[in-house]
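#random but structural
TW: two for the price of one
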Amino acid sequence: MNEDKMHEQRWIEIQFYYLLKDILAMTQDIFKTLDWIDALAISNAYNPTYIKQYAMEFLQTPWVQPSKEEVVVLGHNNRMPIATIKRWTGLHNKTFYNILERSREETPLFMPRYKTEQISEIQNFLTFFEKLRRLGA
């Protein structure tokens, strides 16, 4: 797998993680978060069994959670607004720009934590959620 593909897949995982964190902040309970994932599955856009499993892993397992460096570099490379990256990471401006500068000097390699098939299912969930978010806009 080439570096661009790995970074693309890791970016999908990162977006999933922060969407889950936002949902968890809204529901205030991990089980309500899982119920929310189940409720939206009426769309048949994704497999709720897999998404709930991945959600539990992302929220509870440190090895799948993104590092601040991953969020800054991949977020910047994917044109994520700086304000959003800083909100997600809690980084100060100087630290944010230092990470970007280091990544320009020595390109980091970010590996996805899940297999391609799993990331595809996560992408289905993200795509559905984005469509839902745009309703009425």
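TW: number two ↓
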Amino acid sequence: MSDLIERAKTFYRLALTEPKRACDEFLAEDFVLENRLPAHFPFGGVYRGAEGFLTYLGELVEAIDMGPLQIDAWVADGNEVVMRGTEASTVKNTGRRYAMSFVHWLSFDENGRVTVMREFNDTATMACLLYTSPSP
């Protein structure tokens, strides 16, 4: 397995358990996170640097009770790592549970630090879950 895949796995583990440490140990100074969701979605947009990453995580925690990420593929090519998986979580404002597919793409610099993180989510599923009340 690629060293970058191992770095990516460690980054995600820390991001979900020790976010500040993940920033300190893994993010490049010019880090950018892109989560191109519609403007009215929480935790969508472009976030810059460690402060932006921590803001993103805060917005995520406000909107959902995140369950475990089930990763079914890790692929490394050059300085990039792509992971594919499913997230099973609960939306706080609707109480709805969901399982949603996603792809995350990471780009690393020559020092093994993450420069770009891009999220690709099932936006249609997210819209239904974030903005619809649970059935009685």
